[in-house]
Amino acid sequence: MAGKKGMKIRRARSNTARYRIWQSMRIMRRFTMPDLCRASDARLFNVRKFVDALVRHGYIAKNAGYVSGRAGVYQSYRIVRDTGPYYPTRCDRCGRPIGEKCDKIGGGS
Amino acid sequence: MHHEMAMTKNVKRFLAAIRDLVDRTMGQEGMALLWGMPGEGKSTTVAFATNTLDGIFLRANACWTMTSMLSDLLVELGRPAGYRRAPMVNSVVQALMERPRPIFVDEADYLFRQVEMLDVLRDIYDLTGAPVVLIGMEDMARKVQIRGKFARRITQWVEFAGIDSADARTLANTVCEIGVADDLLGHIHTAARANIGRMTTALARVETFGRINHMDQVTLGAWGKRPLFYDQPRFKRGR
Predict the structure, then answer these.
(1) Of B57, B101, B159, B172, which residue is 20 to 30 A from A85 by alpha carbon distance?
(2) Strands B132-136, B103-106: parallel, antiparallel or unpaired by DSSP?
(3) A72:B54 CB<8 A
(4) What are the residues whose beta carbons fall under 8 Å from the beta carbon of B227, sequence distance 6 or more?
(5) pTM
(6) For B51, which of A20, A71, A72 is closest by C-beta distance?
(7) % of chain B with per-residue pLDDT over 70
(8) What is the CA radius of gyration of chain A?
(9) Cα–Cα distance between B31 and B91 in angstroms, integer?
(10) Is the distance from CB of B1 to CB of B102 less than 8 angstroms?
């Protein structure tokens, strides 16, 4: 996800799994990762990487009230910054690629 | 648990209706109406259809005017929004002629506040052939039927009803990684009141139970009276 030093950040493309995941987020507004897998026909691994990156940069946020360890109950998220039909590849606050840490929001990991 | 779209009758009917609209003959009206109760899987299905058919999704709101509707449509099409209606319609038409895509409008009840918005949508599908799908709550179909003039433009009426036992089997086979016996599936179907979201939660619990106990198939006898959902308990009124 972080890529290699000096690599160019690609512009968002349509008809990719990331595009479909982002569209599903914009349509559902509140969603869980399995919802995104179902709606976008993407694998959970890919969805998780993308969701974690968007949380780090503040595009989406976790909803409160999640209790872990229950079968069939998943963390839900909400979309915070809807930046249009093309998914973000570079954070509009810190300017870094979304695969990297964001130093403006304070999200680490 | 497999996180895949279960092809229930509702989903199949909806996708078939949209494909019919996309492949319709010249002169045939190109509008569809989708309605249903909350929790029937409408949003997930619409998101799936938008992704599968490369559609455009718009959500109407109470403040929508014709200008704001066209601006939102242009933003979704990746074009700059304008200030005047006629150039915006031309721009929308041009974008859709270059790349025809179906348009999905959620909360379409709001369009009936200004009928001109519906006329513009009709112009767009007349000029481009791009089908328009209106999505709303249960009352929506009734509202449309009252307006006879508008009702005849809608050629596909799709209602999202609760899932039946055959759909429950499709769902269990799609999402569950272990077998679920017919008696237990019938019990889940009844307890969830045919709500697909609640059925998925119950099936996840059944799957966990089956895995822990090394079962290939979970029956109602093995499940017993264990709770299927995570609902809060109901207490009798205290004295």
Answers:
(1) B159
(2) parallel
(3) no
(4) none
(5) 0.86
(6) A20
(7) 97
(8) 14
(9) 21
(10) no
